[in-house]
Write a structure and sequence with these properties.
Helix content is 20%, strand content 36%. The protein has one domain: Viral Envelope Glycoprotein, domain 2, CATH 3.30.67. It contains 2 helices and 4 strands; from the N terminus they run ααββββ. A hairpin with a 2-residue loop joins β1 and β2. By secondary structure, the chain is of the alpha+beta class. It is globular.
């Protein structure tokens, strides 16, 4: 897997390929009408923002700070991720 910085600078298409090929799905949350899928690469997390209304991915956001995981605290146990 590439570094967080390289991922963030990749094209949208490359990010999609990396998410599907090199990350593990963790959970899903909703924000308004948007579904946000959380993935983990082993080194950082990736959120994929999907619009069911428009049937497309709106945004892909990668991060490695634990505080950004707070919205997921009620739906997933982070103990297995060794953070």
């Amino acid at each position: 897997m590439i570094s967080l910085r390289d991922f963030q600078q990749s094209s949208f298409e490359k990010k999609c390929d990396l998410v599907t090929g090199y990350s593990n799905y963790i959970t899903l949350r909703t924000l308004g009408e948007c579904k946000i899928y959380l993935y983990h690469t082993g080194a950082y997390f990736i959120e994929v923002y999907y619009s069911p209304t428009h049937h497309k991915v709106l945004m892909i956001h990668a991060f490695n700070d634990v505080s950004s995981l707070e919205p997921y605290a009620d739906v997933v146990s982070l103990a297995d991720l060794n953070l």
